[in-house]
Amino acid sequence: MRPLRLELKGFTAFRDEQAIDFEGLDLFAISGPTGSGKSSILDALTYALYGYVERIGKQTGQLVSQGQARMAVTLEFEVADERFRVTRSTRAAGGASKILLERWEDGGWRQAGEGADRVRDADAMIRGALGLDYEAFTRSVLLPQGRFAEFLVGDAKDRRAILTELLGLELFERLAKRAGELKRDATIAAETNQRLLETEYVGVSEEAVANADRAVKEAAARDRALAESGARIGAIAERWARTEGEVRELASCANDARQAAVRARQTAEAMEELAPQVADAQAGTKRATKAALGAVKAAEKAASARAKATRAWGRATDLVALRAKAEGLSDAREEIAEVEAELKRARAARPKLEKSLAAAERALATAVADAEGALSALEAAKARLEDARHADLVAAVRAGVRVGDACPVCGARIESLAKTPRAQSLERAEGVLTKAEERAAAANRALTGAERSSDAAERDLVAADRDADRLDKDLAKQRAELAALEGEMSVAMGGKLPPDPGATLDDRLARLERLEEAARTAAEVAAGAKEEVARAEQRRNKLAAEVTEERWRLDGIPTSVLLDRARAAAIAVPALPKVTAAKDAEALGAVAGELADGLIALADALDGRATERAEGEDALLGEALSIVEGLVGPEPSLAELVDSVAEARRRAAAEVATSRKEAETARERLANARKLTEEVAAQRVLAGNFDALSKELRADRIIAFLQVEALQILAAAGSKHLSTLSGGRYGLRFDEDEFFVIDTWNGEEARSARTLSGGETFLASLGLALALSEQVAALSVTEKARLDSLFLDEGFGTLDPETLEVVVEAIEQLGGDGRMIGVITHVQELAIRMPARIDVEKSPRGSRLQVVT
């Protein structure tokens, strides 16, 4: 991971928006006075990438600058050939943080996939891109204060876990897990296939296949015999079919004649019942029509009285609406009185608010003047301190010099000496500066409080004016609405508003309701009379329709067709009556009876002729039964025997197909059983191989071996760096899961790295960190592991000048191979040696950042 750009706002010491452009920086220092926010730059990196900072944990709201509502950090970084930008923000009051992870694609920033704006999903994406968790990141890329030496002297278990993360050794854990899964899959597959052989393929054998083939041959022989018999009896059936057609036609014609006779008889019976009902319906219709005329006249009279009242007063709905508006008159007057009182109170409160605002503005002006005065005093104190320091340097130079001596600066003869200030002047100037700084800080706090008070007083006055304007508008609107309502009521009441409009409207409503009730009752009576007329007419029309329907049914009997069919069979036909001769229901009944008798006589003649022609079927049936004997059972007719043979033929053909399918299935099942047996053997061999592989890949074998190898290589590489940093005195060795220091000045004595002093621990940790940064790519089992950046934040102030020089040279050498090396220090000599530096300037408004190259 290599940072490209960092933007901060409201983060710890950085109140205002600040930015660092890391592009082009390979080796640089981050310098500034104590408390200016140097370490906060590293905190911002970890917060942007992981969402929290070690020293405060998950309580990230504590990182928000004092007086700010929210902090935001944007980090643009590069991993291999991919470029990302993460923006994370948190409110001071707490609550969930917000995040957005973007990727540079096609010349622009795009959201880095689904979930890149949700904290949990975005954190997982960042973790996957970096290949490092928080612990590994803060021990290999970013080494903050207090954690610099943890990889050297920390817990061995944690060190191994970090090494596994850095070198991608979890690959072997995944391989072991996958080998175990493949072993389980192969075992399950073998057991499943074995169960199939023991259940689904029981009885599968060569003998079963032979039996299936014999069944196919037997079914085919029966199918051929049925085909031959079917052809012979088919010819016999065709001979009978011709005679049978004539018999069917005679029987059909006789049946049609009998059905027509039944229809004619039904019409005769229906007319016998309908004739008296039709006469009664006609008389009832006349009586109902006369009664309805009187009821309609009474309803018209009641409706006229109601219409007259409606024209004078309006409809009932209009009166109800006016009644509701009358009730609203008093409510409107009461609401106007309440608004007037509220407006009066609002106007009375304004002078007090104006006084409060004036007092706040005076206090603000005083605070501004005090702040300006404090700032001027602070600048003057700084100038006096600078003069005192200069004078102190002059006094040091001229110490012991007398009139007549050569000047120690230019060599000229000294003619006279000015009076030198006392050393106490420098101490007094420093004390004055300290008091001026305290006064400036107090004035700044007072100014902030005065600004808040002035803003609050101004907001209260604006709110009061806004409420008064709103009440004034509401009062005018309500007065206009009241006047409009009174005018509307006056017009609706006939041009004059009565003293009690509600009572007047109630009286009109009661009278109108009585008229409405009378009109409604009369209308209901008239409607009932009309309905009675309609029912009588409906009954009369229904009976007439029934008579007509019966006439159509009788007229629809195909008598001419029946007579023609009978003549074609050489049958003597009777004379039948005409339906058109009937004029009413009674006459229609007589015609229907005569027609029924004639049709019965015709049917009897047709049945007799059909019986004569049907006597030859029995001989043909006997001949056909002798042909199919033993193949199908006897049937009562030739047609049924033909159908029986055809059905037997279909069953035989289906049996042939089924037998062939069963034989084919038996052969396929035998082949599958053989294949499953081979697969079971192969799967059991495969399960054994994967079982052995998973045991070899266990973490306590290959991963532990690779961890020890890597730590020994790191110890050897770190030993070279430490020897250089310590002037050849110290080296490193890894043994029994711990780092040891080899002291060449004491007979190459080996002692635990935990026994080193603070400065020695720093040098040993730095040597190991430099080795880790160099060797991680070569030691990793994946191509992903690469430490492109290293940030150091500890220990440089404890080094003597000679050791510091060696450390600087080592860091410069490491920074020349394409890595980014950042050193956080307040040691000016170290910062000046770096090719570039990021200066952190401290000020009352918050720290500022400046890149110096």
Q: Overall 3D geometry?
A: flat
CATH architecture descriptor text of the domain at 2-141 and 787-852: 3-Layer(aba) Sandwich
The CATH class of the domain at 2-141 and 787-852 turns out to be Alpha Beta
According to CATH, the fold-level topology of the domain at 2-141 and 787-852 is: Rossmann fold
Based on helices, strands and strand pairing, what is the structural class?
alpha/beta
Number of contiguous helices: 18
Superfamily (CATH H level) name of the domain at 2-141 and 787-852: P-loop containing nucleotide triphosphate hydrolases
Strand % is 5-15%
Q: How many strand segments?
A: 15
Radius of gyration: 58 Å
Looking at the chains present, what oligomeric state does this protein adopt?
Answer: single chain
Helix share, percent: 55-70%
Strand order of the largest sheet: 2-1-4-5-6-7
Low-confidence parts lasting 5 or more residues at pLDDT below 50? none
How would you describe the overall organization of this protein?
By secondary structure, the chain is an alpha/beta fold. The protein has a domain at 2-141 and 787-852: P-loop containing nucleotide triphosphate hydrolases (Rossmann fold, 3-Layer(aba) Sandwich). It is built from 18 helices and 15 strands. It has helices at residues 38-50, 119-130, 134-140, 150-153, 156-167, 170-199, 206-313, 316-397, 424-492, 501-555, 559-568, 585-613, 617-627, 638-696, 699-725, 758-779, 801-814, 828-833; strands spanning 2-9, 18-21, 27-31, 70-79, 82-91, 98-105, 108-111, 142-143, 730-735, 738-743, 749-752, 789-792, 820-825, 836-841, 848-852. Strands 2-1-4-5-6-7 form a 6-stranded antiparallel sheet, with helices on one face. A 6-stranded mixed sheet has the order 8-12-13-3-14-15, sandwiched between helices. Strand 1 and strand 2 (18-21) form a beta hairpin. Helix 7 crosses helix 13 (617-627). The longest helix is centred in the first third of the chain and has 108 residues, at 206-313. It is flat. The two termini are 23 Å apart. The mean pLDDT is 80.
